């Protein structure tokens, strides 16, 4: 018998962040009026950061301008700042280094949308993605075969995939058409605060219904006697 348990993550907005989004943006030199794309977690190529930078470079000087806020500990085998500079993105990529959990909520609140891409994948579940969803952020993920239960937007036609009638909680990028669809998705979400808000609100509701710490604990309590 195989049982499925939901991953639970804490609410990053409880207690409310001590720092405002404006304070976080000012701390890292992000100009007013920029649309901030966040990448949260270990700063590795597997998070598709090179591909994200390539998409930003393709979009060029679109308005409002896109800025990338990279939140997490650096990896020895990848220099995201050097990669950004090589693509002509100086001044539009901001690297924080390690951020303590006590400030993570403030950083999530300061971004407009979160890129939670991942390839290759070992079939894992991304805790940083659930935290972004819990914070009510619009998110961009990689369309992975082991997540068919998720209601997501396919950017090829902007149609909803997953359970019938469910509102989408993220945009899922197909890995075989990654660059084109990532460029289009960043452009659509960058221009539409309404679409970002709708995705973020649904993401928060989905986390509340499926992925809180209490729900994970309840699932373990129910499973352990059966396993024993």
Strand content: 15-25%
From the spread of the alpha carbons, the general shape counts as globular
What structural category arises from helix and sheet content?
A: alpha/beta
Work out the radius of gyration.
17 Å
- Cα-to-Cα separation, first versus last residue: 13 Å
In percent, how helical is the residue content? 25-40%
Order of helices and strands: HEHEHEHEHEEEEHHH
Largest sheet, spatial ordering of strands: 3-2-1-4-5-8
Largest pleated sheet:
6 strands, parallel
Number of helical elements: 8
Give me the count of strands. 8
Average pLDDT reading = 96
User: Which stretches of 5+ consecutive residues score pLDDT under 50?
Assistant: none
In words, what does this structure look like?
The protein has 228 residues and is α/β, with parallel strands linked by helices. Helices cover 39% and strands 15% of the residues. It has helices at 21-27, 49-59, 80-86, 101-110, 127-134, 178-191, 193-210, 213-227, and strands at 35-40, 66-71, 93-97, 113-116, 138-142, 152-154, 159-161, 171-173. The strands form two sheets. Strands 3-2-1-4-5-8 form a six-stranded parallel sheet, with helices on both faces. The longest helix is centred in the C-terminal third of the chain and has 18 residues, at 193-210.
Provide a quick synopsis of the model:
The chain has 228 residues and is an alpha/beta fold. It has helices spanning 21-27, 49-59, 80-86, 101-110, 127-134, 178-191, 193-210, 213-227, and strands at 35-40, 66-71, 93-97, 113-116, 138-142, 152-154, 159-161, 171-173.
